[in-house]
Amino acid sequence: MGIDEMCHNKCHKNPNNDNSNVPTEKSGSEYYTCPMHPEVRKWNHGECTICGMDLEPDVITGNDHENPELKKYKEKFLVGIFLTLPIMFLEMARHINGVNSILSEKNNTYIQFILSIPVVLWSGNPFFIKAYNSLRQKSLNMFSLISLGTGVSFIYSLFALLKPNLFPKSFHYQNGGIPVYFETSSIIITLVLLGQMLELRARKFTSLAIKTLLELTPRSAKIVINGSEQDIPIENIKVGDNIIISPGEKIPADGTITEGSTNVDESMVTGESVPIHKKLNDFVIAGTVNIDGSIIMKATKIGSNTMLANIIKMVNNSQRSKVPIQRVADLASSWFVPVVISVSVFSFLAWSLFATKQSMSYGFISAVNVLIIACPCAIGLATTLSIMVGVGIGAKNGILIKDPECLEVLEKVDTIIIDKTGTLTEGKPKVGEIHSKNDSVSEHRVLQLAASLAHNSKHPLSTAITCFAKDRGMNLLKVTNFESITGKGLIGEIDGQKVALGNKDLMQNMEISSETIISLTNEFPTIVFLANSTSVIGYITLSDNIKKSTLEAIKKLQKMKINIVMATGDNQKSAKLIANITGIKNFVSNVTPEEKLKIVEKYKENGHVVVMIGDGVNDAVALSAAHVGISMGNGIDVAIENSNITLLKGDLIRVVGAIDLSSKVMKNIRQNLFLAFAYNTACIPIAAGVLFPQFGILISPIFAAIAMSASSLSVIGNALRLNFEKI
Where is it found, in Gene Ontology cellular component terms (predicted)? Predict the structure, then answer.
């Protein structure tokens, strides 16, 4: 699959979907999914219809209730270990002089048989049910192999005990007895139960990031009702409520400060380590901590609509997604079990035909070894757990990964196309000069007309002009027939007269042109013109500061041999000024959204892996077209919706972090795949007895069970190791 296809096939149907169980009306928190096959969803606890793995809640919650599957395995493990230990002692007693004379060989075997019945049929019951379901679904899995290995061992031992004459001489020991494997079946089932318990416990840590975010929300809030304070559960907060936040308390909703000022710790939500000073009318985020001042805030977004809630949703959805490299594991898993069963049968036949003494007995052991030691789960878990941990790490560092499949692309990036305003710069322009070009229109009137138009737009330049006018107590005028022309400016009617506010391209569209417009555009880095239907009546200059982290981020990206191209709608002078300060060698000015798209497509056509970084409406199309779109969290919704990754604080240094994270996640996935494939490639032949002719080594089924559990746990442990990586 090409890189383009990987990043843009975001909505697809999967033939493995368990459609009969896909929710239609209930909320996502009420159903369960498989960590290896997220397309499988059910309304209740159970196992995956593809791999047999125990399902887990699709939406992670903050409660600490014990996993019912883990509780079930605990109970069965305790019974298993309680009965397996005496079975092991009885088996060892056969080989200890003096002890073996206390109990006859036959009685010893009968006691082992009786003790193993509840272990195999009750403790091992979940595995046999999973195996039956896998056969019914025509999707054999790890539990098919475990059940086949332990089931065959138990049934074989039962016949060896009750009907020994049915077996040929090649099954008999030199003393005439037939070996039984009641202890093998019991130990394997007990060890696999232990492995499942450890695996379920370890899998809990992959959702640690979401649980940490969930814990940020306070349980109650103090609101002002009719002049008095009242504590209410957080669920009862309404939009418009006035909430009192004391020092040290968590903020329970998104909103604006209506009274007081303070410093707020946003590190757990945005990754910003330095406390942010908040004053009147500033926006505060649910889940952040009020450090040192008492404030009153007005709730604007509550419950599932807060930024924190949306972050949790995004992270949860991302952790359930697959990356293209997962197809390697899926392909291997699809043929893995049939191949293992074939190798098991071949091993038995080879021993039976070519061994000299006790050939079938050795053949039986090797066949069971192969079935038990094989571990398709390690292959399946190799990618999914790394993605879950990686997405969680990103969230903790203010990097929201919406499409994890693009992590596979991001590590290969060689070209970054970057917007200027709000990306390289703070995106908070300040009004500089206001001039009138018409004797009948005062500078006050120029600002009033411009601000009245700008009030209807969310563009950073419009916001700057509107705030500048409001700070001076200026009354804004009513605008009709308002129109926003992306990349050019605004048009509307005020008091029945057509008024336009924008750059020289908008003026040209209105057939208003003069040498003054061209000279002023070349003189000031950022300038907007105010015009009526026939001529320019004034202009406003603006300036924007470069973000503190921009220079460091650009240097680090250039050290990574990444070509950086600045594409901005601003004029040549403004673009060149920013390019010189930041050290960006390639830049394009006066570009429209369509031209940004063409720039992205040109680099893609030339074989480059392209990342687009932006924050505005004029970046949305290019963000969607790039291999990876990265939006600034301080940008507008349409830009965020069209991106694959969102940087919560709009901090460019986090782009470096995102690339670093993608490299570490993909490296971890490759390590896991190597561990899984190397384990199975090495262990299956050893289990079959390949070392016996040369070295006399034939492992026991018990060792095979230990190795199988260790394989899955090694993959899980390696994925969890990502939590200690710094980005």
Answer: plasma membrane
What's the residue count for the chain?
727
Question: Three-class SS of residue 48?
Answer: coil
pLDDT interval class at 582 (50, 70, 90): very high
Taking Cα atoms as reference points, which of 641, 638, 632 lies closest to residue 398?
632
What type of residue is 440? Answer: S
Q: Out of 254, 403, 419, 651, pick the active-site residue.
A: 419
* More confident position, 338 or 384: 338
Helix/strand/coil for 362: helix
153-196 pLDDT, tens digit each:
899 889 888 887 777 766 666 555 677 888 888 988 998 898 88
Q: Which of 9, 5, 37 is nearest to 379 (CA)?
A: 37
What does DSSP assign to residue 606?
Answer: T
Contact 420, 566 (CB under 8 A): yes
Structure tokens at 36: 């290896």
Q: Is 56 left (phi over 0), alpha (psi -120 to 50) or beta?
A: beta
**Bridge partners for 564 per DSSP:** 416
Q: What is the Cα–Cα distance from 34 to 16, expressed in whole angstroms?
A: 12
**DSSP conformation class of 609:** -
In one-letter notation, the amino acid at residue 618 is N
In angstroms, the CA 145 to CA 133 distance is 13
- Helix ranges (H only) for 606-723 are 620-625, 637-641, 653-688, 692-695, 701-720
The full 3-state SS of 190-203, as one line of letters, equals HHHHHHHHHHHHHH
Task: Give me the helix-helix angle, 326-354 and 142-162, nearest 10°.
Answer: 20
Tell the burial category of 177 from Cβ atoms under 10 Å away from its Cβ (0-12, 13-18, 19+).
Answer: middle
Condensed to tens digits (0 to 9), the pLDDT of residues 200-215 reads 777 666 666 666 667 7
CA distance 321 to 317: 7
Q: Cα separations (Å) of 329 from 33, 317, 322, 489?
A: 18, 21, 11, 51
- Tokens (6 digits) for 532: 């009526």
User: Please, which residues have CB within 8 angstroms of residue 107's CB and are 6 or more apart in sequence?
Assistant: none
Q: Is the pTM of this model over 0.85?
A: no
Backbone angles phi, psi at 539, to 5 degrees: -150, 160
Set out the domains of the chain in order of their start, with CATH numbers. Answer: 238-301 (2.70.150.10), 404-425+546-643 (3.40.50.1000), 430-543 (3.40.1110.10)
d(C-alpha 483, C-alpha 463), whole Å: 16
- What pLDDT does 19 receive? 40
Q: Which residues contact 146 (CB under 8 A, 6 or more apart)?
A: 127, 131, 188, 189, 192, 371, 372
Residue 9 pLDDT grade (very low, low, confident, very high; cuts 50, 70, 90): very low
Query: Percent helix, strand and coil across the chain, each rounded to 5?
Result: 50, 15, 30
Active site residue 330: no
Q: Helix, strand or coil for residue 224?
A: strand
Q: How far apart (Å, rounded) are the C-alpha atoms in residues 709 and 443?
A: 78
Q: Which two tokens stand for residue 192?
A: 């696999």
Q: What are 260's two structure tokens?
A: 């007081």
CB within 8 A of 293, min separation 6: which ones? 247, 260, 261, 262, 263
Question: What own/partner pairs with CB < 8 Å and gap ≥ 24 does 503-507 have?
Answer: 503/527, 503/528, 503/529, 503/569, 503/571, 504/529, 504/571, 505/590, 505/592, 507/531, 507/536
Cα distance between residue 181 and residue 187, in whole Å = 10
Beta-bridge partners for 629 = 612
